[in-house]
Amino acid sequence: MDMLHEILRWTHIGIGVIAFASLWTAGFSRKGSRVHRTAGAIYVWTMVIVLTTAAGLTLTTAWRGQWFGAVFLFYLLVITGTALWLGRRALDFKGDARGYTRGPFLYLGVLNIAAACGAVAIGLIAEQYFIAGISVIGFLIGFGAIGQWRKPPEHPRFWLKEHIGGMIGAGIATHIAFASIGLRQLFPEMDTSVISIWPWLAPVIIGFVAAGLAEKRYVDGGAPLR
Fold this sequence. Notes:
This protein is mainly alpha-helical. It has a domain at 66-220. 80% of the residues lie in helices and 0% in strands. The protein contains 9 helices and no strands. Helix 1 runs antiparallel to helix 2, helix 2 runs antiparallel to helix 3 and helix 8 runs antiparallel to helix 9 (198-220). The longest helix has 30 residues, at 34-63.
C-alpha cells in the first residue's frame, strides 16, 4: 500500500505540473484563440488524471488510518472536480441554461455541502481553523448549484460566466492543494509559519479577483472572444 501511495503521489505531482502550465497558458492567451482552446483541453485532461490520482491518494490515506487527511483530500477532490466539470459543461450548453442545470447538478451541490461540512468538522477538531475557513468554497459551490437548479441563469452569456468561474475555481483549488500540501512534501525544511496562511489565502484572493475582472470584461462588457 505504501508503494501504491508513492506511485500515486508522484504521478499526481508530475501531471499536476503540466496542468499548472496549461492553466496559466490558457489564462493568459486570447480567449477563444487556438492556443486558448488547446491549452484548455490539455488542462482538462491532465486534471482528470490529477483527480483520479487524488481519489487514489484519498483511499490510501484513509487505509493508513489518517482520517483527517483523507477527509480533507476528499473535500479538495470534490470542489476541484465539481468546478472543472461545471467549467467544461458550460461549453456544451451555450444556449441552454435549463439543460446546463439538469442531470447531476443538484446532487453535486449536495455533495459539495457535505464535503464542506466534513472540512469544517476536521478543522475545528484539529484546531486547524484555516481548513474550516476554506470550507466556504464548498458551501458557495454547493448552494450556488442548488440555486441554479431551482432557477437557471438568464444572462445570454451565462455559459461564459460559468466557464470562467468553473475553470478559475478549479485553479484555486489546485493551487491550494499544491501550496499547502505539495510544498510541504517537496520542501519539508521550509518554515511552516510561512506556508501555513498564504497558500490558503493567496489563491482565493487572486482567483476571485481574476474571475471578477474576466466576467466584467467578457460577460457584462460583451468583449469579443477572438
